[in-house]
Specification:
Blueprint: E1 13-20, H1 27-37, E2 41-53, E3 56-62, H2 65-76, E4 81-86, H3 92-104, E5 110-112, H4 129-137, E6 143-144, H5 148-155, H6 162-174, E7 179-183, E8 193-200, E9 203-210, H7 220-233, H8 238-254
Helix pairs in contact: 1-7, 2-3, 3-4, 5-6, 7-8
The structure holds pyridoxal-5'-phosphate.
Length: 268
Amino acid sequence: MRKDNPRDDRPPVCLTIAGLDPSGGAGVIADIRTFSAFGCFSTAAITSVTFQNSTGISGALHHSPRTVRKQIESVTEDYDVAAVKIGMLPTLLITETVAGVLKEHALTNIVIDPVIRSTSGFQLMDEDVLTGLITHLFPLATLVTPNIPEAEKIARLAIGSKDEIERAAAVFRARGAAHVLIKGGHLAAASGKARDYLFIDDELTILAADRIEGRSVRGTGCVLSSAIAANLALGKDLITAVNIAKEFITEAIRNAPDIGKGDPPSYF
Ligand code: PLP
């Protein structure tokens, strides 16, 4: 880290720009928990307040572009932000605003987890957000971390094989995303392995972990992307950060506590 700085023992500051899940399974609470687990200092800008718990999601009230901008600026005008994780972006205007603020403040180490639907099927972004995300945010991203359904929607391809994953990643790169992690959990049932496909430029690394059967765990995408952001903030290179994050989420799925009436949250 900043060896020439007399206050060198300061924790790196991570910022999450995401939705609030009051029950703590996903969104900013899961992100903050993750940043803290890696010894980073957590800050957050909330894009939407969702109404959900382990049994499902009933709705959301979105912030305005102005309130999102003001939250981010409260942080960036004071702290050096070492990494940013971006999750739920509910509207096109918020998406454009976030891209604008990130550029104005020259923020780096940006990990984007495209949040389209909740696992239970609730639509968390307006239809026109995807175009804005691709146009304005992909070029700023260090890494984009879609799962298979998100990659299919963004690349406009059906994905059922490794070849199709490679084709989808090429579309992401053509749209400006430098590096892409396609999370293959949705293809895992046949192989028993949870394989993720990391493309650093066009070089593919496959990360495999045992698939944990019978667990539908909430907030796994949030925790994985935040763990990657935290490790980038700590100065790790991208491939190391992704490997650490993958081990972390695998363990967090294994440890998911049955604290609610429905699907458990990941926990560590
Ligand atoms: N962010 C918020 C606020 C959510 O409500 C959800 C899902 O419900 C997500 C992100 C995505 O969660 P996951 O980590 O399971 O992709």
